Structures are given as C-alpha cells and as structure tokens.
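Example 9 (inverse folding). The structure is encoded as follows.
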C-alpha cells in the first residue's frame, strides 16, 4: 500500500471518531432532556395527588435533575475531548 493510501486511511479513522463524538454529545444531551422531563412529569403528578408534600417533592426533583445534568455534562465533556484532542 502506498503512503497516500495509509494517510487516507488515517484521515478516515479520524473523521469517523469525530463524527461519533458529535453523535455521542448529541445523544447525551437528548438522554438528559428525556430524563429531566420524566422527573418533571412524575413530580407534577405527585404534587397533584398530595399537595401538602410539594416542598419535599420539589427538593427531591431538583436533586435528581442536578445529578442527571452532572452525568450529561460529564459525557459531553468526554465527547468534546475526543473531538478536539
């Protein structure tokens, strides 16, 4: 195989990994949004059933949403490291 063929194969591998990193970041953001929306839906249903527990439900909802955002942020940072390094 010529050196040009080797260079083209190396460039193709880089392009595929960068594309995969972009899709990974998009999937992490999409999954986080779906998770947080599920938390919001469940919290609103719970508050509708027991309005007196709204404070506890709201605080638990915020903690769970923050944990999901942390995991999503970590996944996006890893994807960007793959993309730019």
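The amino acid assigned to each position is listed next.
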């Amino acid at each position: 195989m010529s050196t040009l063929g080797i260079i083209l194969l190396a460039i193709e591998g880089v392009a595929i990994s960068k594309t995969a990193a972009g899709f990974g970041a998009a999937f992490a953001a999409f999954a986080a949004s779906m998770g947080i929306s599920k938390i919001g839906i469940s919290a609103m249903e719970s508050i509708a059933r027991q309005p007196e527990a709204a404070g506890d439900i709201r605080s638990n909802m915020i903690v769970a949403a923050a944990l999901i955002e942390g995991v999503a942020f970590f996944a996006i940072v890893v994807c960007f490291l793959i993309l730019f390094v």
